[in-house]
Design a protein that fits this description.
With 100 residues, the protein is mostly helical. The protein is 90% helix and 0% strand. The chain has 3 helices and no strands. The longest helix is centred in the middle third of the chain and has 36 residues. It starts with a helix and ends with a helix. The relative contact order is 0.09.
């Protein structure tokens, strides 16, 4: 669920940045004398979008790590990991015995 929200927020920030750049270019086109620092403003808008994307990605990675460590530290998480390892061990033993 969190990954879906991450994709929505990330896409929303990139769309807002693109719309802001489009609006700035339209203002520059409609003005007669032009905008002298247009490149700098576009650079700052793109930088802000990338910074938001980076922060959202850090939050997503932190959430995934927190969820992973919480599940591994709980009793049910340990039991499920032991069950997964025993299933893998059983599958490997079956694979080895079938080859012999």
């Amino acid at each position: 669920m969190f990954i879906i929200a991450y994709n929505y927020v990330n896409t929303f920030s990139l769309v807002l940045g693109s719309l802001a750049i489009y609006c700035i270019l339209m203002v520059d086109y409609l003005t007669l004398r032009g905008w002298t620092s247009l490149d700098d403003v576009m650079f700052y808008i793109r930088g802000a979008c990338r910074a938001i994307e980076f922060c959202v990605t850090l939050c997503m990675c932190g959430y995934i790590m927190m969820t992973f460590y919480t599940e591994m530290s709980s009793v049910a998480g340990r039991e499920s990991s032991v069950l997964q390892l025993s299933c893998i061990d059983l599958a490997l033993k079956l694979l080895i015995t079938q080859q012999v």
